[in-house]
Design a protein that fits this description.
Layout lengths: L2 E3 L18 E3 L4 E3 L15 H5 L5 E3 L7 H15 L1
Antiparallel strand pairs: 1-4, 2-3
InterPro entries: 4Fe4S_Fe-S-bd, 4Fe4S_Fe_S_CS, PSI_iron-sulfur_center, YfhL-like
Protein name: YfhL family 4Fe-4S dicluster ferredoxin
Organism: Vitreoscilla massiliensis
Length: 84
């Protein structure tokens, strides 16, 4: 599943540069995550980097966009292929 940022976000700017897929962006009020780009860092890291740096723990699993690890891996591979 992709991740999402709750309204507890304090706009501290630490998550956006950590995302290897550029899935995190500044929304109207808080940072947001594009679910079509989020792989939970599968293919890049063992753990989602945004969750590791978030000081308020407001980045959670997005139950609205369920995906298996295999689907996240396939998304990662497609994103990498699209870069070339």
């Amino acid at each position: 599943m992709s991740l999402f940022i709750t309204d507890e976000c304090i706009n501290c700017d630490v998550c956006e540069p950590e995302c290897p897929n550029d899935a995190i962006y500044q929304g109207d009020e808080i940072y947001e995550i594009n679910p079509s780009l989020c792989t939970q860092c599968i293919g890049h890291y063992d753990e989602p980097q945004c969750q590791q740096v978030c000081p308020v723990d407001c980045i959670l699993i997005d139950e609205v966009h369920p995906e298996t690890e295999e689907q996240l891996q396939a998304k990662y591979e497609k994103l990498q292929a699209d870069k070339n």
